[in-house]
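Exercise 7b. C-alpha cells:
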C-alpha cells in the first residue's frame, strides 16, 4: 500500500473485502413475514391492553390518526414535532456508524436549548442573524456537552456509553440552577422574577418562520432537519469521510492499517453527534414543538425518542425519516386520547411494543444467518 493510499484512508481494490451478496428471494420473504408477524403481534397486544383498561381499541386508533393527521392542522404539527426527532436520530446514526455509543442526547438537547435561550434574548441585530446565531450556539452547547465524553474517551479510554448517560443526569440540575439567577437563564422581567424553573420569553422575531401548506402550519425546522439528514446521508455513502467513519466503526484494526487516525475522528464524530442534538434543542425552543421560553423539562424525552428512531433506522439516515414521522404521529396523536377515556400514557406502551416489534426481525435474521454459517463451517471441516 502506497503512502497516498494510507493517507486517504480508502481501501484499494486489492484490500477491499468482497461486497456482501444480495439477499436471496427466500430470505427477503422470511424477513417480510417476520416484520408482518412482529408488528401484528405488537398491535394485537396494544389492543388487548386498551381493552383491559375499559377502552376501545378502534376508538384509540381513530383518535391517534385524527390527532396526528386528519384533524385541522394536525399533520403540520406532526411534521413540526418530527424535526427534533430527526435531528437527534441523524447525529446518533453517524456516531453508531463510527462504533460509538452516544446515549446522552437528552442532556445534549437540554444544553443546546439553554445556550440558545441565553443568546436569543440578549443578541441584537436582524432576525435572521439572531436565529442563525442562536441555532449555531445551540450546536456549540450540545457539542461541548458531548465533547466531555469524547475527551475522556481519547484521554483515559473511558467508555462514552457511561459518560454520556451520566452527563444527562447532570444536565437537569444545571438547568434548574441556571433558571434561578436572571443574569444567567432566569426571566429578567420584574413581574415574573418569582417564577421558578421558567426562563425569559423569546422575542417573537427570533422564532423560526412557519410554512403555510393546505391549512397547516409547518415549522421551518422541519426543512432544516430534512436537509441536514439528506446531506448526512450523502456524506456517509459518497465521501471519503463517510468511508473512513464506516471503517473505524466496522474494523478499527483495518482503520489503523489504512492510516486513519481513530482517536481524533471518533472525538469529532461524537462532538458532531452532540451538536446535532443541541440544534434539536434549539429548534424546540425557537419552533412550535415546545413553547417559546426555556423551562425545566423542555427536552420532553425528545432525546430518548430520537435515539429510538436511530435504533430502528438501523444506521440508515434515510430510513430515519419515516421512523421519525411515526414517532411524531404517536406524540401528536396522543393528545386526542382523552376523548376515548384512555390515558395518553398508553401511547408510550404502544411505542415500546412497536420498537420491540421492529427489533425482533433483525435479531431473528442474525441468529438464522449465524446458524447457517456455523453449519456450513462444520460441513467444510468434516
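Sequence design result:
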Amino acid at each position: 500500500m502506497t503512502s497516498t493510499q494510507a493517507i486517504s484512508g480508502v481501501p484499494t481494490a486489492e484490500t477491499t473485502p468482497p461486497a456482501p451478496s444480495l439477499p436471496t428471494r427466500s430470505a427477503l420473504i422470511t424477513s417480510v413475514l417476520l416484520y408482518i408477524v412482529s408488528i401484528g403481534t405488537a398491535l394485537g397486544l396494544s389492543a388487548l391492553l386498551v381493552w383491559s383498561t375499559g377502552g376501545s381499541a378502534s376508538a384509540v386508533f381513530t383518535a391517534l390518526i385524527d390527532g396526528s393527521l386528519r384533524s385541522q392542522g394536525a399533520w403540520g404539527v406532526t411534521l413540526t414535532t418530527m424535526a427534533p426527532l430527526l435531528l437527534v436520530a441523524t447525529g446518533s446514526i453517524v456516531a453508531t456508524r463510527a462504533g460509538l455509543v452516544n446515549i446522552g442526547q437528552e442532556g445534549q438537547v437540554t444544553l443546546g436549548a439553554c445556550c440558545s435561550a441565553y443568546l436569543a434574548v440578549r443578541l441584537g441585530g436582524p432576525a435572521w442573524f439572531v436565529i442563525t446565531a442562536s441555532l449555531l450556539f445551540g450546536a456549540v452547547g450540545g457539542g461541548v456537552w458531548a465533547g466531555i465524553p469524547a475527551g475522556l474517551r481519547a484521554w483515559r479510554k473511558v467508555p462514552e456509553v457511561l459518560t454520556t448517560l451520566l452527563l444527562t443526569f447532570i444536565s437537569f440540575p444545571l438547568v434548574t440552577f441556571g433558571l434561578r439567577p436572571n443574569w444567567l437563564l432566569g426571566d429578567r422581567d420584574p413581574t415574573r422574577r418569582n417564577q421558578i424553573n421558567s426562563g425569559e420569553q423569546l422575542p417573537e422575531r427570533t422564532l423560526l418562520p412557519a410554512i403555510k401548506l393546505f391549512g397547516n402550519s409547518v415549522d421551518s425546522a422541519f426543512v432544516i432537519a430534512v436537509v441536514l439528514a439528506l446531506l448526512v446521508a450523502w456524506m456517509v455513502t459518497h465521501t471519503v469521510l463517510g468511508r473512513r467513519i464506516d471503517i473505524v466503526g466496522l474494523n478499527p484494526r483495518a482503520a489503523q492499517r489504512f492510516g486513519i487516525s481513530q482517536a481524533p475522528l471518533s472525538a469529532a464524530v461524537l462532538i458532531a453527534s452532540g451538536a446535532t442534538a443541541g440544534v434539536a434543542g434549539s429548534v424546540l425552543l425557537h419552533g412550535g414543538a415546545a413553547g417559546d421560553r426555556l423551562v425545566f423539562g423542555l427536552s420532553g424525552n425528545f432525546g430518548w425518542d430520537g435515539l429510538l428512531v436511530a435504533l430502528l433506522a438501523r444506521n440508515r439516515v434515510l430510513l430515519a425519516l419515516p421512523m421519525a414521522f411515526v414517532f411524531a404521529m404517536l406524540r401528536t396523536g396522543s393528545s386526542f386520547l382523552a376523548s376515548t377515556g384512555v390515558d395518553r400514557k398508553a401511547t408510550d406502551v404502544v411505542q415500546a411494543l412497536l420498537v420491540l416489534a421492529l427489533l425482533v426481525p433483525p435479531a431473528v435474521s442474525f441468529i438464522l444467518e449465524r446458524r447457517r454459517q456455523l453449519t456450513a463451517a462444520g460441513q467444510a471441516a468434516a
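Instructor comment: Confidence is low (pLDDT under 50) at residues 1-22. The chain has 14 helices and four strands.
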